[in-house]
């Protein structure tokens, strides 16, 4: 009887533990959705209730980062907490050095540096299914995009991206060339669409309020499918592919389509490439960009993909020593369309170098799926930074770092994370409910 009672107590404790983890996962999912979609909520408030100020957007982001650390830090193992704190300490040290030299601080640069740590921590606490989570998110993004394409004027009146960006980002209303539309400026840019030319459809922004981030979501979702497709049933996989193709057409994203194709072609290599060599991907992408500029003979900036790649190559050649050391704050905004130049000038070459090495050697993924996603992110990140700094925004960066955090915390022992953990595999020290099968199925 005593043995039976003891067994019943353990069963009851296990049920309570699973229930607690389930509630935490729901809270994490809601926080992640808010992180990537808070702009559409504030835009609605701005359009329908009262003017939203920049301070309100800052407050929303601070709430998000506080939530990430507040929820996730308790599940991290001690050595990983130490690694996170060491990384933040390095950032603070460099910021203090720059402040003592320039007597100047840029809050945006600090935010850019905090986002990876915040969502690594949040992702590490997640014990649900990554494919199912992001399939649900893709459905939401697609439904909003479909409504936007069907009734763009209604979307424009209800959300009013133009007014939102004028009020919160200091955008010039005169820069919105289409006076008859309240959509974001690039949603109705001059010229035909790349897909469905002649349809007069806008370029969908969905929950992201502007099309560039919607394109970034496409690249992320494509990488997720390429890594985790074996963990998805045929119906979910088919639905995911349909949603991906729909979003490519809806957003009319040339870069998104091209980067997704590059990820598809490179998927086998990304899966087999030793993750410790991931620090080489960005320098190789830059070298490839310089070769492309030389071969094509482009010699000036144009608002095209190739023109922006030229700007990146040009910026890296022309940046001063002060800019490389992060001591010329204006350079980051001078080369705003070059994410790589922005990265170096806003953080310094020391931080960029430390980031690449820490990412390669410190963020060790215990599964093959984790290695594949880690390498895919670095490829997508490097390619995206050739033409834009949008991957530093929370609504884009949060997704990648969240998945990296979830994969980082998987138990050691199951190299193929779509398969169940072997019986003799060591459990996670602080949160043993999370198994590879749970995260990826």
Which helices and strands occur, and which strands form pairs?
Blueprint: H1 2-48, H2 54-72, H3 78-102, H4 107-124, H5 130-150, H6 152-159, H7 161-169, H8 211-228, H9 234-251, H10 254-272, H11 281-296, H12 305-318, H13 321-324, H14 329-334, H15 339-347, H16 349-362, H17 368-385, H18 394-408, H19 436-440
What can you see in these coordinates?
- The protein has helices spanning 2-48, 54-72, 78-102, 107-124, 130-150, 152-159, 161-169, 211-228, 234-251, 254-272, 281-296, 305-318, 321-324, 329-334, 339-347, 349-362, 368-385, 394-408, 436-440.
- It is an all-alpha fold and 441 residues long.
- The protein has one domain (25-409).
- Helix 11 (281-296) packs across helix 12.
- The longest helix is centred in the N-terminal third of the chain and has 47 residues, at 2-48.
- It is globular.
Number of helices: 19
Cα gyration radius (Å): 22 Å
Q: What is the terminal-to-terminal distance? A: 38 Å
Give the overall pLDDT as a whole number. 85
Helix content: 55-70%
| Element order: H for helix, E for strand | HHHHHHHHHHHHHHHHHHH
Number of domains: 1
| Biggest pleated sheet | none
Shape annotation = globular
């Amino acid at each position: 009887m005593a043995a039976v009672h003891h067994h019943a107590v353990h069963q009851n404790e296990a049920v309570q533990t699973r229930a607690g983890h389930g509630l935490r996962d729901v809270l994490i999912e809601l926080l992640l959705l808010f992180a990537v979609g808070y702009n559409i909520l504030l835009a609605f408030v701005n359009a329908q209730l009262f003017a939203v100020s920049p301070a309100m957007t800052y407050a929303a982001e601070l709430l998000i980062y506080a939530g990430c650390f507040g929820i996730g830090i308790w599940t991290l193992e001690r050595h990983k907490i130490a690694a996170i704190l060491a990384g933040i300490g390095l950032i603070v040290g460099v910021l203090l050095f720059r402040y003592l030299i320039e007597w100047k601080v840029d809050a945006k640069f600090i935010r850019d540096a905090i986002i990876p740590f915040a969502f690594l921590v949040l992702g590490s606490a997640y014990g649900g299914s990554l494919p199912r989570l992001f399939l649900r998110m893709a459905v939401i993004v697609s439904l909003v995009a479909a409504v936007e394409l069907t009734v763009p004027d209604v979307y424009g009146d209800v959300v009013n991206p133009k007014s939102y960006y004028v009020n919160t980002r200091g955008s010039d209303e005169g820069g919105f060339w289409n006076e008859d539309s309240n959509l974001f400026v690039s949603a109705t840019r001059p010229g035909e669409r790349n897909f469905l030319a002649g349809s007069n459809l806008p370029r969908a922004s969905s929950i992201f309020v502007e099309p560039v981030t919607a394109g970034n979501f496409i690249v992320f979702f494509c990488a997720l499918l390429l890594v985790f497709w074996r963990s998805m049933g045929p119906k979910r996989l088919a639905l995911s592919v349909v949603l991906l193709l729909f979003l490519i057409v809806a957003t009319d994203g040339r870069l998104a389509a091209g980067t997704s194709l590059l990820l598809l072609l490179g998927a086998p290599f990304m899966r087999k490439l030793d993750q410790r060599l991931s620090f080489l991907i960005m320098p190789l992408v830059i070298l490839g960009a310089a070769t492309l500029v030389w071969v094509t003979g482009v010699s000036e900036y144009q608002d095209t993909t190739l023109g922006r790649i030229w700007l990146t190559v040009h910026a890296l050649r022309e940046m001063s020593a002060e800019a490389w050391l992060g001591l010329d704050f204006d350079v980051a905004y001078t080369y705003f369309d070059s994410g790589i130049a922005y990265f170096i000038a806003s953080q310094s070459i020391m931080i960029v170098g430390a980031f690449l090495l820490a990412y390669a050697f410190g963020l060790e993924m215990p599964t093959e799926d984790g290695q594949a996603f880690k390498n895919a992110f670095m490829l997508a990140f490097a390619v995206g930074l050739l033409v834009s700094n949008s991957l530093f925004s929370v609504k884009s960066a949060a997704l990648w770092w969240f998945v990296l955090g979830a994969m980082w915390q998987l138990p050691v022992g199951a190299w193929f994370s779509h398969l169940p953990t072997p019986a003799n595999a060591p459990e996670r020290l602080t949160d043993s409910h999370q198994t590879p099968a749970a995260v990826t199925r």
